[in-house]
Amino acid sequence: MLSSSWKRDIASGLIVLVPLLVTAYVVAFIYQAIANLPFLETTLAGLPVSVRVLITLVLFGLLVLAVGYLMRTTVGDILEETLDGIMNRLPGLRVVYNASKMAVETAVSGPDELQTPVKLETWNGMRMTAFKTGKSTDDGRDVLFLPTAPNITTGFVVEVDPDRYTEIDESVEDSLTRILSAGFGENKDRGIRIDVSEESIATTSERPPAEDR
After folding, report:
1. What is the pLDDT of residues 130-177, one digit of tens each?
2. What angle do CA 112, 14, 201 make, to 5 degrees?
3. Is 181 helix (H, G, I), strand (E, B) or coil?
4. In terms of DSSP H, where are the helices of the chain?
5. How far is Cα 202 from Cα 68, in angstroms, rounded to an integer?
6. Contact, 169 vs 122, CB < 8 A?
7. Better-scored residue on pLDDT, 187 or 56
8. Alpha-carbon distance 197 to 66, whole Å?
9. Domain range summary for the chain, segments of one domain joined by +
10. Is the pTM of this model over 0.70?
11. Sheet bearing 127-136, strands edge to edge
């Protein structure tokens, strides 16, 4: 059987390589999908594939900027409300529309949208990491976002009295790193290392309970 050090090395290698391979696969898939668009093959047939893809990405970027600028105006707000109203009247498609819209909003928001991390006591003395959103309810409760691990794009929006949580001296990035790593993350600034080797687990399990010592 492999030793615990070999297992840690294999796990560390997979953590580095698998995301790179998945990212490369997604990029290649998008590249091929753009290159095989029918209207590109007809309108830009004389150009190399890489040039066709580049032109498409540039045009799409300009379209995104134009629509984004329009959304900052009153006309854009009206168009967005109208579009949302139309899509929400379509059975089946409204689920896809709202889910994709929420996914994009979550992806582009980033950690800058989150404010101070806090410790929230949920039940029986258990504490969980949440983030202040800067919003509050009419009755004076603060709105917190309680992410799940390791997928921080999902979670719960909770309304809590200010005296029910405690702000912690930690950056948003450090808190998100701990949640993303499912609690196994290493805080490099403080030099904290979590040892989860088989030897440490066996040693801990062999220790007698506190009342027997």
Report:
1. 888 888 888 889 888 888 877 777 788 889 888 888 888 888 778 888
2. 95
3. coil
4. 4-35, 38-43, 49-71, 74-87, 93-109, 172-180, 198-206
5. 57
6. no
7. 56
8. 53
9. 4-109, 111-198
10. no
11. 155-160, 142-147, 127-136, 117-121, 165-167
